[in-house]
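dumping this here so i dont lose it again. seq + smiles for flavin-adenine dinucleotide
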Amino acid sequence: MSSSTPVTGTATVVGGGPSGLMAAEVLAAAGLQVDVYEHMPSVGRKLLLAGRSGLNLTHSEPLDRLVERYGSAALVRDAVQAFSPAQLRAWCTELGEATYVGSSGRVFPTSLRATPLLRAWLARLQLQGVRMHVRHRWLGWATTPDGAIDPQRHRFQPAAGPGVIAGSDVTVFALGGASWPRVGSDGGWVPHFRAAGLDVRALRPANCGALVHWTEHFAEQFAGVPLKNVALGAGGEMVRGDAMVTATGLESGPVYMLSATIRNEIDRNGACDLTVDLHPDLALATVQQRLTQRRPKESQATALRRCLGLSPVAVSLMREATGNRLPTDPAALARLVKCLPLAVHSTAPIERAISSAGGLALAELDDHFMVRRLPGTFVAGEMLDWDAPTGGYLLQASFSTAVAAARGAIVWRDGAAAAPPSAH
Ligand SMILES: Cc1cc2nc3c(=O)[nH]c(=O)nc-3n(C[C@H](O)[C@H](O)[C@H](O)COP(=O)(O)OP(=O)(O)OC[C@H]3O[C@@H](n4cnc5c(N)ncnc54)[C@H](O)[C@@H]3O)c2cc1C
């Protein structure tokens, strides 16, 4: 909404992450006076954190393949179709941040940072007349005199002074999940939504590391060293890429891709057998044949390095997984190279996860992201129960669901405004 646009209604957006800000932009463009409430001292902190690793905004794969990443979450898939990666990239370009496709098909802003994008975006929102209320924590809904929830009136606690109650015609919630709570999303909304009778699935770590009990020696020597070009397997799935050894396990791309499977396996069996193929480009028979070329006085470790080009971290991982008892038989050694078992005892805690699974059940929403039981209340972003791998799919869905929720709010508000006053 610019100063020349007539105000046609009012909207409250709760949560100032990418979803909340996108909802605010769409609502303001439709002429609503928008108030954004954010409990941190500034908005978009997780977006800025994502920017530290290049800000993977979306993915360039064909749309029909891309939407598959959201599994059975049909509502999210529809939202991504309606506000697609192409539209997201065009939006970025309009804000002065052109995008490019990296070698893996992932899409990044050319600056590889979130700061310029967020700065330009906040300037646009200001021009639209969006009012930001930072350091305001949402504490739940206000209640009517008879104790019922008033869906359009909210209780906020500013950093200083007494609490405030604010109301509007429509509300969009975009409070995020519970990963990296120190940048704002701490899942504090969950008990309020549950108390309102809504089905909220437990927030759990997603796109997170896998924890393995390393020996002290291995952890000290190799934490921070990548296992380059490996294939990880769990629950019948296989993912290739570089995995990072940490002091407590493994992290990064392929581990994140498998994290939902690992989590489910641990839920079922108490642990998960992760396999590592240390040379995915060579067939088992070739690995075995190469290992038969071991020289008489050569140690297995040296042979693994010389015959297969395995890195020191890969060889040490084999020692680690076998209690330092590498088999002498080339066939057995080759099988280990191709399928090294690692016992994962847990996924990394939610505080260190890239995203969280769980959240408000999609069944609580109508096709326009409105909470059926709370008319005029819409929900977007990671606080909803959908899950997707890393690769730009998380931000894409956060933006797309926000556009869908804001459009839903506009249509609902127009309908409510046009409805004849009810007879008393
Ligand atoms: C380290 C890291 C790197 C990432 N990199 C990428 C990436 O490259 N690509 C990608 O697609 N995704 C990435 N993600 C995930 C992505 O950042 C999130 O999926 C996305 O930010 C979710 O947006 P959201 O607006 O739904 O929630 P959030 O960004 O979490 O925003 C929610 C907002 O609500 C506020 N809030 C919470 N509770 C309250 C309350 N009670 N009152 C008021 N305000 C409240 C929070 O402070 C926060 O500002 C990354 C995440 C992490 C942690």
